[in-house]
Write a structure and sequence with these properties.
Helices cover 81% and strands 0% of the residues. The protein has 406 residues and is mainly alpha-helical. It starts with a helix and ends in a 10-residue tail after the last helix.
Length: 406
């Protein structure tokens, strides 16, 4: 009886861990990040920033993240997700609070850099937790659920940060202080969780450096991880640029703050609503590639349409562009974990490598796209649509990892 109860308790506990992982995505990874674009108008007026400087500050997050993203994945494989996420959430809370203390362009860029330095490793280990606690047939669904948390965070962050929280709390700085405090609370919850089912990380101290080298050596020789990373590079360069620019663009062409922010929030809400169906569909079809193909095409077409449409069609185009964002990431990370030679053991390192590649595009994309606005405000959307479409080249070389591989 005790054995049965123990198994039942373990089965139930994994859903608690999955819920905590989703909340981590919502309140630590997504809401602070998505609050930045809608708060940029207030920040730029307070600090006297130009549009290009806003793009550079937005890109600084990716610059910081690229330097540690691979290390963040390695640490998750080495120490386990419990200790890694507990530490990262605490540091992430401090980092976002420091952004709120910025008093100039230089300090804003520096603190954004620190925010990216810490924050990028959180999604890696959140998705690794899904691989650890939900191996097998439920993996796609588990990744979809934690991606849902990210989608909820982006929607809420875009919807309430500037229009509700900023007036209520007394400005953009206090909004970031609030997010920092929530992140620290979640870090405590992670440190209080049980250890993960696999004890592979509990090796002796003397063997740990070898394990780190082994993880990196194992991952860098698997070609599919590099192609998936290049796909993520193109897709995230496109999405990151659009997210940072769209609210500013709409306000400049005469939209109210609520309408401009609402467009981004509606697109994020669409992504939130479809992420689990997208992940579940990839499980049912047994083909991850078909789902990724559809996501890439939707993003490129939607972003391209933003360069020519007006009025209500802007909402439609933005929703088409961003609706598959979270589902795309969930399915792509599932492919990485399913790749032969990766699994849950090396998931952190492999996802970290893919995200490191993606950060190259995210660094360059916002300031470069924003600089095109001086010639024509619509040109950035054309540039980002072309970047998104380039993901199709990498997809061609990716092998199926779902049931379709058989």
């Amino acid at each position: 009886m005790s054995i049965v109860n123990s198994k039942s308790s373990g089965a139930n506990y994994k859903w608690y861990v999955l819920t905590l992982a989703g909340l981590t995505h919502t309140f630590v990874a997504a809401m602070p990040l998505m609050s930045m674009p809608v708060l940029f108008k207030e920040i730029s007026e307070d600090l006297g920033l130009s549009l290009v400087q806003v793009g550079e500050a937005w890109g600084a997050i990716s610059l910081g993240s690229i330097l540690v993203v691979l290390v963040g994945g390695l640490l998750g494989d080495w120490f386990g997700v419990k200790r890694t996420l507990g530490t990262l959430c605490f540091l992430g809370g401090l980092a976002v609070a420091l952004v709120g203390l910025s008093g100039s362009f230089g300090s804003l860029v520096a603190t954004m850099f620190l925010f990216g330095l810490v924050g990028v490793s959180i999604p890696i280990n959140v998705h690794k937790s899904a691989g650890v606690w939900f191996p097998g047939r439920q993996l796609g669904l588990a990744n979809g659920i934690v991606a849902l948390g990210f989608g909820l965070g982006t929607t809420a962050g875009a919807m309430i940060s500037a229009t509700i929280l900023s007036p209520l709390l007394g400005g953009w700085r206090h909004v970031l202080f609030l997010y920092g405090a929530i992140s620290i609370v979640i870090s405590i919850l992670w440190l209080l969780t049980r250890s993960e089912p696999s004890q592979a990380q509990s090796s002796t101290p003397s063997s740990r450096p070898v394990a780190l080298r082994q993880a990196l050596s194992q991952v860098i020789h698997i070609r599919i991880v590099w192609f998936l990373g290049l796909m993520l590079l193109c897709q995230m360069a496109c999405v990151q640029g659009v997210i940072g620019y769209l609210p500013l663009y709409l306000r400049d062409v005469g939209w109210t703050t609520a309408s401009a922010d609402g467009t981004l929030a509606a697109a994020s809400a669409a992504s939130t609503m479809v992420v689990i169906p997208v992940a579940f569909l990839s499980d049912k079809l047994g083909s991850r590639k078909i789902v990724l193909l559809a996501a890439v095409l939707m993003t490129a077409i939607g972003v391209g349409l933003l360069s020519v449409v007006n009025g209500a069609m802007v909402w439609v185009s933005a929703i088409v562009a961003l609706a598959s964002r979270d589902g795309f990431v969930a399915v792509l990370f599932t492919m990485i974990i399913e790749t032969r030679g990766i699994g849950a053991v090396y998931a952190g390192t492999a996802i970290g490598l893919a995200m490191a590649l993606s950060r190259v595009g995210s660094i360059i994309s916002p300031p470069l796209g924003n600089s095109l606005a001086s010639a024509n405000p619509s040109l950035p959307f054309i540039f980002w649509a072309a970047l998104g479409a380039m993901a199709l080249v990498s997809l061609y070389f990716v092998k199926e990892t779902g049931r379709g591989q058989q």
